[in-house]
Amino acid sequence: QVQVVESGGGLVQAGQSLTLSCTITGLTFEDVCVGWFRQAPGKEREGVSWINRSGGTIDYGDSVKGRFTISRDNSKNTVYLQMNSLKPEDSAVYYCAADTSWGRISRAGQANYWGQGTQVTVSS
Prior knowledge:
The strands form two sheets. Strands 2, 4, 5, 6, 9, 10 and 11 form a seven-stranded mixed sheet that branches. The protein has 124 residues and is mostly beta strands. The chain contains one helix and eleven strands; from the N terminus they run βββββββββαββ.
């Protein structure tokens, strides 16, 4: 059974940093691409960042470029999202997702496996 578990969310002030973690078990971690998505109340889900199987291909949504960094540690079955210079508009539930297809997860925003999400709140 595949499990996707996010952690690291919390309440911070604007300008501060947080690191989210996503640990995926129940599959061969090296076989999946991983993405972070977020959804704020009343808004559509937004793609934040994506990383391919090896970590050699990475992409970011325009709203987080230059502030967020995605990485993965295949030895720990974990993907990280380092979030710097946080803004109130970054407040949302952040979801981790995994799929074998880079195109599905990075362009279509679709994935076979999703976590339950972790709340990030940035106060002004």
